[in-house]
Amino acid sequence: MSETVDAPVILSNEPGSFAWGVLTERHPALIQRVRDAFPYGPEQRRALDALLKESTEGAIEPLRQDAPDHDQWNAWGRDYLGRSWLDVPFLWSESYFYRKLLEAVGYFEAGPWQGIDPFRPFKQAELRTEEAEAELAALDLLALKPVDDQAQALLHGSLWGNRADLGFRMVSGNNGESSSDTPLVADDSEVLWSLLPAGRPNTVCLVADNAGRELVPDLLLIDHLLGHQHAERVVLHVKPYPYYVSDATTSDVIECLRHLKQADGVAGVVGTRLWAAVGRGRLTVRAHAFSCAPLPYAEMPDDLRQEFADATLTIMKGDLNYRRLVGDHLWPATASFAKRTEYFPGPVAALRTLKSDVIVGLDKRTEELLVAAHDQRWRTSGTHALIQVR
Ligand SMILES: O=P(O)(O)OC[C@@]1(O)O[C@H](CO)[C@@H](O)[C@@H]1O
């Protein structure tokens, strides 16, 4: 099979497949959770029920005529509206589901529910778990270690933080604990550090994934990059609106910074430093509309392309960003990461735990060992992780 031409686009219509499970099990469970988490009135409850019915039994319907992005989604969905949710590309249907969930709860509509993040209670609870507290307390000990060890630990903290994804944990039963003793299936961390020599005017774009227990370690890594002159400036890309359950928005960044700032010990010092870095423009938060587009990064608009082109390194966090980076296709696992990302306008690194079928850049031996030990579950179970750089 020619890796660049023929790898099939992932759909959700194969019973038992990962994508099928997301649409038929994960999404209904999420609707129920959101319904239970807020005292929604009859209008929102009816709309949530309608979304459940539509997404499990019906055909894909357009957004409300008065939705601000109605025309945009109609254009993106030209080939998909009216079809079964299971029969269209998984990346598109999953992204559209989150957009429709916001419509159901009145997120964009003038009125009392406007701007209320339906996932906020779950994100908030995340920050206050015992494990999250322990992770912050561990910074006091880490600060005593050699700087290189700190750097590697913070990189791994950010990487494994990606396992703390609420959508994933709702169904897998995974408790979000780190598997950081599992060897990475690909590890280009040396290349990553070599791209960020200290003392140069480097700009790093970090394209965030989840809030809470992923965003906190991302911020800790950013503080290290700034503090040890690996970056003069960091641009933190977040979602312009709630998405994929726990994806970070600007509000989540503020919440995490406040949380850090109020913590004891080193965590509190880091929080104060990051707060000041935002004030000085060394850390910028960016919420580009394309971050919530149902499209691969290969189709990014020119302004975003220019931003990534200008960066010394772009770090893509998480599974969804990985799917968008390499394309949501069933590539052979040994397909080249460099080739899949050659369109990207600058150096790019992926930090991701494996939570969907997409994977490239493995060597044959690694793939064989993974298949022998775990059948195909290693691709989606979140027990494995990678750092890939081009
Ligand atoms: O991007 P993230 O948070 O790492 O992962 C998102 C995720 O949990 O959601 C999708 C299924 O709902 C999959 O792409 C992936 O497993």
From TrEMBL:
- Keywords of this entry: Hydrolase, Manganese, Metal-binding
Q: Which InterPro entries match?
A: ARMT-1-like_metal-bd_sf, ARMT1, ARMT1-like_metal-bd
Official protein name in the record: Damage-control phosphatase ARMT1 family protein
What this protein catalyses is: beta-D-fructose 6-phosphate = dihydroxyacetone + D-glyceraldehyde 3-phosphate; beta-D-fructose 1-phosphate + H2O = D-fructose + phosphate
For the keyword Flavoprotein, the answer is no
Highest taxon of the lineage: Bacteria
Cofactor(s) the protein needs: Mn(2+)
Annotated Damage-control phosphatase ARMT1-like metal-binding domain ranges read 23-366
Describe the family membership recorded for this protein in Swiss-Prot or TrEMBL: Belongs to the damage-control phosphatase family. Sugar phosphate phosphatase III subfamily.
PANTHER family for this protein: DAMAGE-CONTROL PHOSPHATASE ARMT1 (PTHR12260:SF6)
